[in-house]
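Q: What changes when copper (II) ion is included in the input?
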Amino acid sequence: MVGNVRAILIALGLSGMSACAPGEVLLGEPPQGYVEDAKARVAAAEWSKAETVTVALSEFRFTPQELEFRKGAPYRLRIENRGKLSHTFDAEGFFAAIAVQKVRSGGSETALPYVKRLVVASEEATDLYFVAVTPGTYDLECSVPLHDTFGMTGRIVIR
Ligand SMILES: [Cu+2]
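A: The predicted holo structure follows.
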């Protein structure tokens, strides 16, 4: 991996845990179960009104542990790793329930990606710009081995 790639997107359709740079995420057709008209929803949203929500990753918790979003509203979710270790923001059900405008990390941006998991290195941050689409309650966890056992789990609600 290139040293200046600070956060990593892992796209659906790539094998196993292989990581790739933000520019290599899966684009085009949505994976099964994802929002199919994400592009139109992103285009229709009023991004100047996007609310910023911050979640911190550390050893070994998400702060806050529960995130809540309103259906139809645009957000910038800032995921900050304030810990000493790399952590992931793993919430596939949630990612399938939103329309992503872009992901920004380490100075690079990826437009209209389908995201499965975000990996954030120590003292780095990733911004996820999205519209909340499908109401529901979704599990959040860090998928680094044992981190969930140590308490890195959470919940995301779209109302
Ligand atoms: Cu972790």
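Observations recorded in class: The CA atoms of residues 34 and 96 lie 4 Å apart.
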